[in-house]
Design brief:
6-stranded antiparallel sheet; 22% helix; binds 2-oxoglutaric acid; 3-stranded antiparallel sheet; alpha+beta; Jelly Rolls; 6 helices
Length: 266
């Protein structure tokens, strides 16, 4: 297991933003690109506020704390596919900003440079509210290709919706793990969402390394559909972690169902 104290920071690629060839070289070498402050910070924080309003109405937040602090009330913890979670999540998935933000010029422009063509942003946008005190319901190691299918040349952009120190449980990527292609996933009994993943015995071990950083609003990670990644557990005991995953590929290439459906068909 990756502990927050042992994880290697992600390499930043802001220096190559205007240089598509370097972006592609790094992406094909490492399986990911990490950018500080590339995502539209004000819109990211606006979406955080809108999601937290729903969390507050559901009683998940400490009413005495500042809304944007996302301080947990102690109700739950809940995870995706549990009824109280899905009642809130249905509202999140229908927020206009939740559906518009993934097509922000900052993301689309980046993906155009990387893909070198017209970009298709998948209709399936995924939002995550990760509770503390729920380590077993942490996103396990997996490759998005298992869930997305279509062309392997599909990329996820993971965006933290707020300050995300390591102990809040942000994303970790296994650098270099995309090189071996798709790996057979197994079902994890007891996992309430993202139930298919990769145990230690199925992960590549040569020339790979878990990487994660403390994230700020506006940061984002781009990774290949074969790059193994996972969440780190939210061990704060006190705060909710919010984030979003969006997928991009070249227009005209093979698509799987995720390109055309909303998450859970909500
Ligand atoms: O944020 C998470 O917990 C997991 C995100 C993820 O697995 C993804 O972006 O594909």
């Amino acid at each position: 297991m990756t502990t927050t104290s042992s994880v290697t920071p992600l390499a930043e690629s802001n220096d190559a933003l205007a240089d598509p060839a370097t972006l592609r070289t790094r992406l094909s070498r490492d399986g990911y690109l990490f950018f500080r402050g590339l995502a539209p910070r004000a819109r990211v924080l606006d979406l955080r506020r809108q999601i937290l309003e729903f969390c507050k109405e559901a009683g998940w937040l400490d009413a005495k704390a500042d809304l944007m602090d996302a301080r947990w009330s102690g109700v739950g913890p809940y995870a995706e596919n549990e009824a109280p979670y899905m009642q809130v999540y249905r509202r999140i998935v229908h927020l206009p900003l939740f559906n518009d933000l993934p097509r922000d010029p900052a993301y689309m422009g980046l993906m155009e440079r990387i893909l070198g063509g017209t970009v298709l942003n998948h209709r399936m946008h995924i939002g995550r509210v990760s509770f503390p005190n729920n380590p077993l319901q942490t996103t396990p190691p997996h490759q998005d290709f298992h869930y997305i299918a279509g062309t392997p040349e599909t990329y996820t952009i993971w965006t933290p919706l707020g300050e995300t120190p390591l102990d809040l449980g942000g994303l970790a990527v296994l650098r270099g793990s995309h090189r071996g292609g798709y790996l057979e996933h197994v079902e994890f009994p007891g996992q309430k969402y993202a139930a298919f993943g990769l145990g230690d015995d199925r992960l590549p071990h040569d020339d790979v390394e878990w990487r994660a950083s403390a994230y700020h609003p506006g940061d984002c990670i781009v990774f290949h559909s074969h790059t193994v990644h996972k969440a780190m557990p939210n061990v704060t005991g006190t705060h909710l972690r919010l984030s979003m995953d969006n997928r991009y590929q070249r227009q005209g290439e093979a698509t799987g169902p995720a390109a055309h459906r909303t998450h859970h068909d909500l």
